[in-house]
Amino acid sequence: QHALLAIKDLISHDPFSSLSSWNSSLQFCSWRGVTCGRRHRRVTSLNLSSLQLAGSLSPHVGNLSFLRVIDLSTNRFHQILPPEIGRLFRLRYLSLEDNSFQGNNFRGKIPSELGSLSKLLRLNLAAIISLVQSHLHLGTSLACMQAYCQFLLQISRPTSNWLDSTNYLTGDIPVEIENLKNLEYLIFYENMLTGRLPDSIGKLSKLQALHVYTNRISGNIPSSFGNLSQILYLNLAYNFLEGTIPVSLENYSQLEELQLSYNHLSGAIPEKLAGIDSLFGLLASNNLTGNLIKLDVSDNKLSGKIPSSIESCVMLEYLNLKGNFFEGTIPPSFKKLRSIRVLNLAHNNLSGQIPKFLGELPLLGYLNLSGNNFDGEMPAEGVFTNASAFSVAGNDKLCGGIKALQLHECPKQRRKTGVHRKVVILASCAALFLLLVVASVCAVIHRRKQKKSGPSLASPLEKKYQRVSYSELVHATGGFSSTNIIGDGKYGTVYKGTLGSDDQVAVKVFKLRQRGASKTFMAEINALRNIRHRNLVRIVNSCSTIDFQGNDFKALIFEFMSNGSLESWLHASSPESQDFKNLSLLQRINIASDVALALDYLHNQCETTVLHCDLKPSNILLDNDLTAQVGDFGLAKILLAAGGESFSTESSSICIRGTIGYVAPEYGMGGEASTHGDVYSYGILVLEMFTGKRPTDSMFTGKRPTDSMFTGDFNLHCFVEAALPDRVMEIIDPLLSVDIQEEVQTRRNGPRGRSSISIEKALLLWCIKASSSRSSLPQDPSVDSSQNVMLAKTVALYTSCSLQETMISITNWTILDLTKFFPLNHANKCSPLLTF
């Protein structure tokens, strides 16, 4: 308590009186922003984010030795960050960032004591205005750090509150960065860093991304960079690097993107680097074993011949070699680049004839060969038929081509002799005859195979759209018109579109400028590549290319769900409006059953267990028959069977998976993702379906009801649990009241009478454990997630005969409960829908 009061004393400005509760009249664990442990009354979390507090941070914060979380983001703290933070050896999360219009104003060095935080998982220093040059002496004990420096000391949209909006990091990259052994992402772009790239970066064996572009780095690329065996993205563009490209970079077996443009590099491109054939690629036409998409080494001093091994990059779409000293001819191996869309070889010393196969590349839309020494006849097919799509300026020895080029005619070749002509005709006839024979044999074999194989099981959409281009998606969505938007999230926007004549689809376009969007794209691909189920949204196609401005573009195409999301039905507008929608009790039960079946499939029936990690109403889509289909696998995680390992495409394993209100509590404390987390989210979903209350409803976020039965922390669990068993009808969705009353009246008038119905309800209410899903960790270790999910489906179906019991949380029920309280003969009498 004394440490917290000391922190309050140094806060000079509290505009909203947010800390008014910090006084001796209340126990300190009840103060705003303070969270204490369950087993002891020690402070474990201090969250003062977005309160617009001003002042300095007291050194007494170091006395809160049990702290795990400190979040001071979006305030106006100033002066020195106290080194006493280094005492907090239990600290896991430290956030000083600003995501709003004010920012922070910490000054001084980053305390070297941060290196003592052995359990720290995330350090966020983004958008700190006055951070001076720091030597990151962080030691060797920092367990896992991600550098968020892309906006460090740089405000892109200044407001009237700031006098200087462009501060930059200066100085050298410290050699001591080698101590961050577990570093995965190192991002220093768009600053004013100088000096050389430290050789010590090559010791960061777990590094996956290195972005140092747009600085003033000079010197050579260290050969030690070849030790970065896990590197995916290497961007050193827009610096003053010189020398040759190290041969050691050929060790990059997983490289996705290499950017070395706008430097002073010289020498030849290493042969194996240009021909890496095992690059971890992006999705193209549902083929997940892609290749390098973009290669840009323009405006350097590279020389020699263009490596012919570049033919291995069969999925290459963008190749920019302009502004170098390459010589020789265009390699014949370029004919294998069937996916190339942009090819820029301008301003080199290339010579010889322009190959005709360039006109045969089906997707080539822009070709620049200007400023070279090409000669001979210009091709006139493919890209060469559109004068605005290619440039050959500065090649004075060219002739022929289309009229728009206004080149002189090529000299005519002398006619062949009559004997030579006869030989050519005879050889052509013989070759044509052999070709016809081979074609006939192949046709017969193919027809026989078709008869044996039977009809194809592929859907009409999959047959029709084997490959979708960017221009087709532009046309299908009306130029990505805002009127066609049917959903919008952090990583992507979903548009309604029409492919072909009348096939409606949903096109999810990823916001690639949003950090983590590319990883989300890969997560959905890896999750959906091998799964098929009637209750999972099916991917129809995909598109990974560049747009008309040359920017990266990624999209997924799904079947269009005409009834939208479950969110729009549960929280629709008022009954008086024209777009009012409502689900009956039976429809809600069926939807809950569909979602349970989908989870059971993902957890137990797939070859590898798939975790959804973001189950909520907005990710449950409804088709024409109101059949539920689970979608949005952007946070999905795949558990491998061998050794319990896992695969995830997210940038960090410590990010909280899911949406606030639906995510399992242990995820917030750094717990590993598991099937129990999905089951917990499913329990929240069921409660929301039958109460009509979101877990983030205003009544659960800081407000407490006046009713005396609600005491302590108040959330959706407490809301339901407190109403059992006598007040269930008071907490159900009001839109279900009429439906339920009609059902109850029907049962009272039935042959069994009112008393038998009351007996059924009493049996359920008193025998079943109520509202026990406060944590996704199972109480019975022998019960796995599949049992929980299928039990949830069973209980939902059982409610078709016992209406009020749907409100009861099902997350932690056990199979023992099922066999004890739901005898087979009783269940079968109740509802023909219930089967075991």
UniProtKB/TrEMBL annotation:
Protein's cellular compartments: Cell membrane
GO function terms (MF aspect): ATP binding; protein serine/threonine kinase activity
Record's bilayer topology term: Single-pass membrane protein
Keyword ATP-binding belongs to the record: yes
Species of the source: Salix viminalis (Common osier)
One annotated Gene Ontology cellular component of this protein: plasma membrane
Key words of the record: ATP-binding, Cell membrane, Glycoprotein, Kinase, Leucine-rich repeat, Membrane, Nucleotide-binding, Phosphoprotein, Receptor, Repeat, Serine/threonine-protein kinase, Signal, Transferase, Transmembrane, Transmembrane helix
Family: Belongs to the protein kinase superfamily. Ser/Thr protein kinase family.
Enzyme class, spelled out: transferase
Domain Protein kinase: 480-757
TM regions (residue ranges): 423-445
Primary location class: membrane
UniProt: ATP binding residues: K508
Protein name according to UniProt: non-specific serine/threonine protein kinase
Signal peptide per UniProt: none
Domain of life of the organism encoding this protein: Eukaryota
EC number, as in UniProt: 2.7.11.1
Swiss-Prot/TrEMBL catalytic activity: L-threonyl-[protein] + ATP = O-phospho-L-threonyl-[protein] + ADP + H(+); L-seryl-[protein] + ATP = O-phospho-L-seryl-[protein] + ADP + H(+)
Pfam family, one: LRRNT_2
